[in-house]
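ingest -> validate -> predict -> emit
validate: passed (alphabet ok, no gaps, 196 aa)
predict: started
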Amino acid sequence: MVGDYTRTMREVAAAGGKPKPVWMTLQIAWSGVSKPGKTLRMPNFPEERFMTYQAIINGARGLVYFGGHVPQAWSERDRGLGWNWAFWERVLGPLVEEVGTKSPLAPALVAPDSKLPVKVDGAEGVEFVVRETSDALFLLACKREGKTVQARFTGLPAAIGDGEVLYESPRRVRAENGTLVDWFAPFDVHVYRFAK
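emit:
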């Protein structure tokens, strides 16, 4: 639902004719999982990663992760440090490395959405965004719940060919005649980078 809420917030932010950037707040822990009588549940790495990329794909230009300050979600070591550093080490730190300012993806995260006529076929629940920088084309894609599907992206520049799948090394893909085909399981995220 993160993508749904992001799109809704973009619509709200565009009211009045002058769109504004949208920041989304994602979960570490909150009162719904940390109060007495509730089951403490925090996202694992694949869940937090999916929420992060689904927000970006649907237009979030900033992300905040809420709940590291909730004492009920702290480990014994965290209590002495005053923040949920166990969650940082296990989940959030590795994710911030993917989307942080020093990541290979960073230039694409601040680039505008591409005007390329990219479409996806045969892939119910696959969401994507294309971003271009001076030296690369990025295709960020994720799959909602449902069955595993083979997605066919068309409308990419015919000149691109081999691409890397960031954070899945050594996996690479090949686009042919402006088309890329790849598999997506539920909640998969793939970040493709093609050099220009």
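The chain has two domains: 2-99, 106-195.
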